[in-house]
Amino acid sequence: xxxxxxxxxxxxxxxxxxxxxxxxxxxxxxxxxxxxxxxxxxxxxxxxxxxxxxxxxxxxxxxxxxxxxxxxxxxxxxxxxxxxxxxxxxxxxxxxxxxxxxxxxxxxxxxxxxxxxxxxxxxxxxxxxxxxxxxxxxxxxxxxxxxxxxxxxxxxxxxxxxxxxxxxxx
Length: 170
Known about the structure:
Elements lengths: L43 H11 L5 H5 L2 E9 L7 E2 L1 H14 L4 E10 L2 E12 L2 E14 L2 E9 L1 H7 L8
Parallel strand pairs: 1-6
Antiparallel strand pairs: 1-2, 3-4, 4-5, 5-6
């Protein structure tokens, strides 16, 4: 399930080679460049937490800055839609954010082992005028300060009940 190492771009300087915005160079203020004070960089648990928390600002570019070019976004829920590549993911983010006004993910716990991170969360928002509060877990793979894979496990049945698409539990 863990993807192999990303292929290096021969036209981009590697770690320790100066260059603005180049991964591994520690370029201040640029996500994914190795600066531990910038969201999307640093240890995998920090990358995961800042990614999940970035949804609250509703800035699709800021959210997408946490993921690699070859990012795989998988959903274990029958209602989720998977995507492959940062570009495809970014294109979908505006619609996702618009569908859930007031979207926030409350991080309840983070468990990290190497580049694998599990984030237990509560997603709160409004969907079609209905308040929602959905539990879930994201399993993230982090390499070089960026998320390369996300598998999101969330409770679709609770979502359907809270949006009145299904009757409440009796």
